[in-house]
Amino acid sequence: MKFFTSAAFWGAILMLEAIVGVAADTKVVLLAGTRSHGAGEHEFRAGCLLLAECLRTVPGVQAIVVTNGWPTEMSVFDGAATVIMYADGGAGHPAIRPDRLKVIDGLVHKGTGIGALHYGVEVPVGDPGFAMLRWTGGYFEAFWSVNPTWKAEFSRLPNHPITRGVQPFSIEDEWYYHLRFVPDSMGITPILAVVPPADTLDRADGPHSGNPFVRASVAKGDAQTLMWAYDRPTAEGGGRGFGFTGGHFHKNWGHPEFRKLVLNAILWSAGLEIPAQGLGVSLSPAQLAANLDVK
Predict the structure, then answer these.
(1) How many CA atoms lie within 13 A of 128 on its CB side?
(2) Fewer CB within 10 Å: C terminus or N terminus of the chain?
C-alpha cells in the first residue's frame, strides 16, 4: 500500500474541506421588525420565522431570525450570504441610523446580498435612500411612490432564476409602485410588473397615496414594477439585491406561488442555485398561524 504525504495531496484535502465548509454554511439573516399594524398585518416576526423554516429545508442553508429589527451583537452578520429586511420603513426603518448604514455598506462591499420586503423597501430620501439604491437598486420614496391595496394579476413572468417554477397568479396585497430606481435602471430586472388599475389612485395626493408624477405614469399605461432583482456593479463589490413590495397580509405567505417567489429571491440573493422547479415548500394551516404577534 502506498501512502501519499506530498504537499500537493494535503493541499487538495484542505481545499476540499474548505469547499465543503462553504457549501454547508450558507447563512441567511432575516431582520424582523417590531410589532406593527393590526392582527394579521405586518407580522414581521411570524413571517421571518416562516420563511426561515422553509429555507432550512435546503441542505446547507442556515437561516437566522433577528427580532426587534436589529441585532444586539453585530457578529450575527459574520459570514452572512444575504440579509433580508422585513420591518416597518420610513423614519422607523431599523437600518437607517448612520452607524447601521455603515454596517450594511460593509457587508455589501463584500458582496453580501440584501433583500427588502414590503414596508422594508421604504426609507427617507437622502443618505438612507442612496444606501438602498446601493444595496437593492430601488426603494419607496415618499411623494413619489404609492401604497394602494389592490388585487394584482401576474399573467406573465420573466425568465429569471427567481421565477423558476412559479406559475402566473393573482393576489390582493398592499402593492407599492412607482418606485425610485438607480439611474437608467442599470442592473435592474423587473420580476413582477403590471399596469395598475386607475382606481389605485383614487386617494388624494399625499406622501404615500398619490402625486402628479405617478398619475401621469399610470395614465400613459406604464407597467409598474412591484418586485425587482438587482445585479450590483462589480466595481462596487458586486453581489445581488432585491425588493418585494407585497407582504402586508400574513395570510398571503400561504399562497404557494407568492411564497415560492420570495424564497427563490432569498436564495438568489445569497448566490445559491435555484432548483429547476423553485423552492416549493408545503405549509400547514398550523404553521401559517404560528408565532403571530399579540395585537
Answers:
(1) 20
(2) N
